[in-house]
Structure formats: C-alpha cells, structure tokens
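re: that complex we talked abt at group meeting.

here r the seqs, copy pasted straight from the sheet so there may be weird spacing, ignore it
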Amino acid sequence: MQGFLASWRLYGRTDRMLRNIFGILAVLLPLLLWSAVSYLPFVWHPQVLITDPGGEEYLETGMRMNRADFARAVTEMQEQHQPVPQGIPSNPVYLPSPGDVLSAFVHAFTSSAPVGAEHSITQAFAHSIRIIFWGFVISSVMGVPLGIMCGSIPAVARLVEPSVDFFRYLPAPAFGALAVAILGIYDAPKIAIIVIGTLFQQILVIANTTRKLDFSLVEASRTLGAKGLRLLFRVVIPGILPDLYRDQRILLGWAWTYLIVAELIGTSSGITWFITQQARYQHFDNVFAAMALIGIVGLGTDMVLGVVGRKLFTWKRENG
Amino acid sequence: MVDHVEHTLPDYRILPPDVAARMEQIKKRDYVLEIERVTKVFTQKRNRTVALDSIEFGVHRRELVCVVGPSGCGKSTLIRILAGLEDATEGRILMDGKPVRGPGSDRGMVFQKYTLFPWLDVCRNVMFGIEMGGVDRLEAQRQAMQWLQMIGLEQFATAYPHQLSGGMQQRVAIARALAASPRVLLMDESFSALDAQTRTKMQNYLMEIWRKIDITIVFITHDLDEAIYLADRILVLKPHPGQVEEVIEVPLSRPRRAEQMTSAEFLATKAHLEGLIRSFGTSDDMEEEEVTIDLPLLTLVTDQVE
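got the structure back, here u go
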C-alpha cells in the first residue's frame, strides 16, 4: 500500500510488481470502459435498434433511431391502436462492442474470403507494410549518411540544411499529384510520399544527434592520431549509434503517419483504403479491427526494437 | 603574512646540491616542445579577449613541467594549443624543432573529463591509439594487454568504462595515451575530478610511469601541492592577459615522497606560489580571505557551536 502511494508522488519510487500491475491496468482500464459502454444499457445507449417495426410504416428491422423518436413512434402507434414497434437499446453504429470487433479480428485471420468488395484485412495490411518498409529503407539509405555528414562536416551542413528546412515545411500530400504524374499510379508514388515525408525530418534529426556527440571524445581520438574516415567510422558513428537507433525508431513511427496520404493517391490500396471502404459500408467492427491491428503491430515492433536496442547498446545504459 | 612565513622558511630559489645537479643535466638536453611567442586572442562580436600573450617557453626532454595560474590565465588554452586542438593567433609550437599543425599522436593528452570511448571495453580503448598508428589488430591487442598489465588493470580488460571508478578510468586514459607512443604527454587537470586519496595515488603512479618510460610530461593544474610535488619546473602564468610570471625550479630531490610535502623547501615554494597567485587578485578558487556573512543568529544561544 505504501509502495502504491509512493508511485503517485512526483519522481516517486515504484517496484517491479507495481510497474507490472500498472502496465496491465493500462490495457485493461480502457477495455473495461469500452465494455461497460457497450454492454451495460444504462451507461449510454442513446439509440434503439428496431427488432420489429410494428405498425409504423417508415421503420424497418435493423434500423437505429434516437430514443426520443422511438418513444414518439411507440405512443403514436398506441394512440392509433396498432402494433407497437419493438426495439432494444443500442449504441450508435460507429461504436461496435468489443465482442464484435474481436470476432471481426478473428475472422480476418481465419477466413480467406474477402470481407466486402475489397481484400481481406490481412492482405490490405501486408500491402501497407510493404509500402512502409520500402519507403523507410529508401529514406534511410539517403537520410542517415546525409544526416551524419551534416552533423559532422560544417560545409555539408551549410549546403544541405537550408533546402532541407524548406522542403520540410511543404506538406507531403502536396507532392501527391506530382508523384503520380512522375511515377505512375501504383506503388511507386506511395513509396515516394513516405520518403518525402520522412527523409527531410530524418536528415535534420540525425544531423542534430551527430552534433550532440560528446566533443571531448572526438578531441581525445584526435590526440590519439585519428582523423578523416577513421575518425568518422571508429568514433563518430559508434558514438552516436544508440541515439541514431532511437531516432530511427521514432522516424519509423513518423513514416506510418504518412501512410494514410500515400494510400489515397493513385490507385487506393492498403489498410487505409480498407478502413475507408468498410466505414462507407458502415462495417465499423472491421474498421476497429483494422485500427487495432495497426496499433498492435506498431506497438509490437517498437517494443521489439526497444528490447533489441537495450541488448545491443549495453554500454549506454549507465549514462542514461 | 607572506613575509612572516618567508622569514622562517628557506629561500625557495636555493636548490639543494642534488637537485641543482639534476637541473643542470635536464637543461643540457634538447627541447622537445618549444612554445614560440604564442598569442591567443578570442574574438566574440566586438569583444576581444587576449587569453595568452607572447608565451615563450621550452620543455626539455624527459622533463616534468607543471603549469599553474589562477583561473582565467589561459592555462587550459595553452595546453589545447600544445595538443593542436586549437590554433594560436600568433606564434607557433615546435615539436622536436618542427612546427606542429593540428593534433597528432606525438602529443598524447589526458583530459580532465573522462574521455574513454564508452562503447569500447578497456582493452579496445587502449588499442585505439596503437591501431591508429597502423599496427594490425592482433599486435595492437598484445601491446594493449602489456599496458594494462603495467597499470595493473589486466583483469578489467573486458570491462566497459562505466563499470570502472574515476581513478581507474583515468589510469586507463593514461595507458591509452601512452600506448600510442607519444613523445609528450599533456595532462589537463587530469586528476582534479578525483577525490584527495585517489589523487595522491595517481600522482605517485604517474611519476612511476614517467620514470620508466621515455616520455616528457606537461601537466596543467590549479592544485599548488600537486604542481610542487610533481614538477621539475613550474611555469606560473598570470591572468588578463595570460603571460609568464615566473618559472620556478622546484627545490625537491627525487624520487619524491609524500613526506616531502611538509619539508621546509616545499612549504617555502608553496608560500611563494600562494603569494604570487594572491597578488593576481582574481583567483576565485583558493582565496582564504575573511568571508563575512550578514546573518542574524538563528539558533539558541546555548546551542552555539564555537
């Protein structure tokens, strides 16, 4: 109990068990809230799902209407002595219950049949991941070396950084039409959008990281006879590697945010397209399942990368 | 107060016969490092600060020179110029008669900050300078292990710097600098981050290494005891602008021992140095002037401490 209170204080202490408990609660509490809203009719349920239209002409089974309107319809039918419409309290269509989403999620992995007119979630998602992967790889191949050079060679920084700063402020979607005109309508312009969205930030972020290398290490290596490429490869790059790795993790998340734009240009495709299509059909359970998939994969990748990073850079742990 | 001390102490300029003979011998040797009219001016917008003004000094082969001075006298700037990490505004540095351009492995340096490469283990750190000299990896490793044996840290060969204490890190830093086989070892307040006991140990340890290895040492410090204990000659700089105030030949015989720190010669030298530093008037780290704080008594009279 004391430990529990201490963990709420500013810079307080926590032990391992409490941290785990909080970690589990972090997932459980939102789920519980969602379940409560979905399954306990008295919590919200502002609408009524019609199960039997009764005598009212404009009602149909499966329709949703506001509770007040439904009550009016019921009294109207009672006054006219016609069959009374029946219905159950329900949430708006855009808030499916956890159970529905879970079953849509499971369905996506178990059945190979397409959901709706388009591909299945998994197919769409695999396509998205391919776009992200190539976009990020191409961006990194250019951005990482350029960023390191900007951070370590003043001339390169002066030459490159002003124009990078200029392009950084142009929103990536602005390049959409141009990318399609140049690269066609399939995957190439989508990858290009990811690259444009990531590259310019990447150069600046990595240049900054390179500049933050403890300069006394560079000076020490110089007095030991290191210079030129050997200074770069033996001191600068190993010295910034843990921070570079962390930057790449953050930038990968950045690349994901451009996916939405990328997939809506040319021939729409991928998980974003899937989500918009399913939303149009009001299959919100599929929409939520797809969103959950993105979140889970994103979080999972980041956690794996974090663990790998800690394993790779044990020397960094002591100095924060 | 200074005068009073000097009455009871011998003149610091009178060298005992053995020290005088040794001084003669050192002065016969060539200069390894020559500082020729070195001036350093820092310009910031319209502010022009003269950090060093026409410094002229020569370090003989196998000599141990300490540089002292109040803060702001440019001693750190001087050693950075010697190392080639900064350029002199005017004048030049000669290394074995040849002017130096930029940093090089002939002038090893040990910094005040811990500068071991944190991503390399101790052995790899020591290997760094050897490998930069073009020696292949296996041979470099063999030499590095010899150095580690010499500093008594061979059992830490695979440890990472953050696992070592400050004193051990500086020992490895010294070994790393020496392993690159420099002619001169430059030390920029290398021991000032260490606690007093470790510092004394490191001083003895440095002199032990210096005795055995063909190396010339230039040691910057603000600790006067350290300077007198280590040095053959002490270069005293005065601030604003940094100029040579005096070159003191330390009247202590070698090998040095901790007991010498209470000898009359030691105290005389220290009294003189303290007088010099105080006369500069700007020192902020070794002032023992009366400090009066305008503070009412905030405790019970019966609880007074003195």
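couple things i noticed - Chain B has nine helices and ten strands. Residues 196-212 of chain B form the longest helix (17 residues).
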